[in-house]
Amino acid sequence: MKPFSRELFGSRFGVLMALAGSAIGLGNLWRFPYLTAQNGGAAFILIYIVLLLLVSIPTMITEYLIGRRSRTSIILTPNRLGHPKMKFIGIFAIISAICIMGFYNVVGGWTIKYLTSSIMLQFGSDTADYAGQFSEYISSPYMPLIHTFIFTGLIAFISFKGVKKGIEKASKIITPTLFIATVLIAIRAITLPGAYEGLKYLLVPDFSKVSIDTIQNALGQGFFTLGLGAGTILIYGSYTKSDENITNSSISTAALDLFFAIVAGIAIIPAIFAISYANGSTPTLDAGPQLVFVTLPSVFASMPFGDIVAILFFFSLALAALTSAMSIFESITAFIIDVTEKSRDKAVYICYLICLIPATFCSLSQGVMSDVRILGLNIFDLLDMLSANVFMTLASLFLLIFAGWILKKEDIIDELSNHGKATTPMWILSTVYILIKYVAPLGVTAIFTYWLLF
Ligand code: PHE
User: How many Å lie between the centroid of ligand 1 and the Cα of residue 336?
Assistant: First the structure.
């Protein structure tokens, strides 16, 4: 087995941008705004924050600290920490990473297509059939596949350059750019006449819309957006210097991610409302691909300076997808490097091929293979469902049990306190430990059981 030393991130800012880049992704842009608007606005955000503090952040801290302590990828972590029997946790996490890469890279490919279309000013007509164009594009066999290969190729290109010159450098440029672009779109959206109604719909708390489903949605969103249970936080943790404060950087990442999600909501929902009022129609709120590839192009087409907003939006979408996919790609690449001891270059090629297999099926499942259904779902939806609801949840749950019940409390506190050198007060570290040991595993078990039963 390789020694503990490995290439590390160079700066605190770099670590934060890499973690935030991994967290901020399609989940923020196409899921959070919709979930917030549908689940009682600020009431949803409040529940989301409570669950973030009690469950998602402690789970993130767990993955991070285990990664830094073991300085290896998720499959070898239990070995390194003296519990080889727990190896199965890594298997769950790597399966989730491969499943996510299947559908995420396909959507990444779609963002490239929409970015080029927006640059070629193809979203100018508010009467165009954007729904028809989108379904025609995604169901065609070749073009989406080519875009997927290009998108995954971009990630592989960054990954070849390694941790500091590749991942860290790219994150330091991309994550702030993404912020600026989204803030600009939000400013355009709230200055449209009629946007205020949308802003109210998005943000005014309405507790009557809160139900058990709201809680499940809030917790599920927290898990997906922080990317828990796919080995990404763990691998980034393993590249982090030992003087980095794990608790602080986990909280900062979750805060940046939430801030970005709210700004994305402000960029999207008020614009939809404003344009619907202007056209005299009822605003339609879709989630997922429908929202970003069908509703928004027609909203952009009707808005002053819409061409520029469309370019900015698809540029943001592509960048957000890129930094998230990059972290998942790294989880698999590092696993290949650590297990096979191959060079990074070879591991990147292998990872590229591994990612393209499920991605090809996911892409074709939108068209020629749409009849292939497992559990009633096409391959794209199946991998989405399995990763988010089964593999990420179970890997996270086992990581929490591993940290809280199998590793020693002294070791956890030692890692969280940077071997006693960090300034974080002891009561905070003890609270984090209680959350890791009791509260977070219970929360995760509750969502998993609820999902299984309903
Ligand atoms: N957090 C990313 C998003 O919101 C997705 C992701 C999942 C990233 C798993 C890393 C690991 O889109």
Answer: 20
Q: Cα–Cα distance between 305 and 308 in angstroms, integer?
A: 6
Q: Residue written as tokens 């390194």?
A: 80
Q: Output the residue whose Cα is nearest ligand 1's atom 12.
A: 25
Q: What does the pLDDT read at residue 154?
A: 98
Q: How many alpha carbons lie under 13 Å from residue 82 in its C-beta half-sphere?
A: 6
416, 246 contact by CB (below 8 A): yes
pLDDT over threshold 70, residue 321: yes
Gap from CA of 420 to ligand 1 centroid (Å): 32
Distance 432 CA to ligand 1 centre (A): 23
Q: Is 17 in the pocket of ligand 1 (CB under 6 A)?
A: no
pTM for the structure as a whole: 0.95
Residue 429 · residue 246 · CB < 8 Å: no
User: Ligand 1 center to residue 271 CA distance, Å?
Assistant: 25
Burial class (CB in 10 A: 0-12, 13-18, 19+), 427: exposed
Q: What is the DSSP string of 397-443?
A: HHHHHIIIIIS-HHHHHHHHTTTTTS---HHHHHHHHHIIIIIHHHH
324 lines ligand 1 (CB under 6 A): yes
Distance of alpha carbon 52 from its chain centroid, rounded? 15
User: For residue 96, which amino acid is it?
Assistant: S
Structure tokens at 366: 């939108």
Contact of 303 with 309, CB cutoff 8 Å: yes
In this structure, what token pair is assigned to residue 289?
A: 């691909």
**How many Cβ atoms from other residues are within 10 Å of residue 429's Cβ?**
17
The pLDDT of residue 2 is above 70: no
C-alpha–C-alpha distance, residues 68 and 284, integer Å: 45
pLDDT at position 52 over 90: yes
pLDDT at 285: 80
For ligand 1, say whether the CB of 27 is within 6 Å of any of its atoms. Answer: yes
Q: In the predicted model, what is the mean pLDDT of the chain?
A: 93
d(CA 18, CA 182): 18
Residue 141: pLDDT band by 50, 70, 90 thresholds? very high
Residue 23: CB within 6 Å of ligand 1? Answer: yes
Query: Hey, which residues does 377 pair with through a beta bridge?
Result: 374
Contact 221, 32 (CB under 8 A): yes
User: Ligand 1, atom 9: nearest CA belongs to which residue?
Assistant: 227
pLDDT per residue as tens digits for the range 256-292: 999 999 999 999 999 999 888 888 888 878 778 888 9
